[in-house]
Amino acid sequence: MPPKAQRSLNIAQPVSSSRAQSANAVLRSATSTMATSGLAASKSSPRSSFFPRTFMATGSARSEMEAYYEQLLSQDRVDGVDAFGKNGIHLLCKGLGIKPESFEMYTLIWKMGVTRGCCIPRADWLKTMYTYKIEQIMDLKLFLVEWMKESSGDSFTEFYNELYDYIRGEEARLMPCGAAVEAWAVLFQNEPRIIPWIKWYSDIYKREVTRDVWRQIEAFLSAVPNINAYNVEDRWSCAIDSYVEWCKVSG
């Protein structure tokens, strides 16, 4: 090796060693500082007081809404599913100040993307809480107010259609007539034309509600302003055709 290159190498080696020692010192200092800061933060954190002692004792890092889910789950866990059922839903509604079979609750089910009948799975709950950065029950209340504007506005059709599976229930293949009638009364509470439809369906038709009929009654009420405007050539279901005929005969 040429003398100049050899001298350069000999000079570079102590410099490199010096940098490594300096970097190690900085790393040790930073690690010590982070550990001290983290300990201080954990002692002073106001949120730690929320968790029940059972969670604090195990050192769990779960959020308030995860802990709240466990409370709801303790009311009634659905067999074979990581989800809480009707008792948990009632407790959740009590915390939110709403009714279980209400427009508000249906809106919450829609925004969480729940498709299982009459229960709320952990996966849907956690996805919603973390997506919207919901940390407390009060946050959920505030979001629900905004979501209601969507479900009762331009997003109503999407909101309504996606509720079929939840209202149908987990054990039923088709939506029971009684469940559908109760839901229609809530979801179309500001639509007077739902009243004769409910009367006809529950007193005369009395059949389980298919997904097609569920969707078509919303489309019918949106597209047809009155019975006289109904066009038999349009592709409506037999249920809608029969209902219109009944309305005409009944006057």
Automatic annotation (TrEMBL):
<dbReference type="GO" id="GO:0045116">
    <property type="term" value="P:protein neddylation"/>
</dbReference>
<dbReference type="GO" id="GO:0097602">
    <property type="term" value="F:cullin family protein binding"/>
</dbReference>
<dbReference type="InterPro" id="IPR014764">
    <property type="entry name" value="DCN-prot"/>
</dbReference>
<feature type="domain" description="DCUN1">
    <location>
        <begin position="60"/>
        <end position="248"/>
    </location>
</feature>
<dbReference type="InterPro" id="IPR042460">
    <property type="entry name" value="DCN1-like_PONY"/>
</dbReference>
<dbReference type="GO" id="GO:0031624">
    <property type="term" value="F:ubiquitin conjugating enzyme binding"/>
</dbReference>
<comment type="function">
    <text>Neddylation of cullins play an essential role in the regulation of SCF-type complexes activity.</text>
</comment>
<dbReference type="GO" id="GO:0000151">
    <property type="term" value="C:ubiquitin ligase complex"/>
</dbReference>
<dbReference type="InterPro" id="IPR005176">
    <property type="entry name" value="PONY_dom"/>
</dbReference>
<protein>
    <recommendedName>
        <fullName>Defective in cullin neddylation protein</fullName>
    </recommendedName>
</protein>
<dbReference type="GO" id="GO:0032182">
    <property type="term" value="F:ubiquitin-like protein binding"/>
</dbReference>
<dbReference type="Pfam" id="PF03556">
    <property type="entry name" value="Cullin_binding"/>
</dbReference>
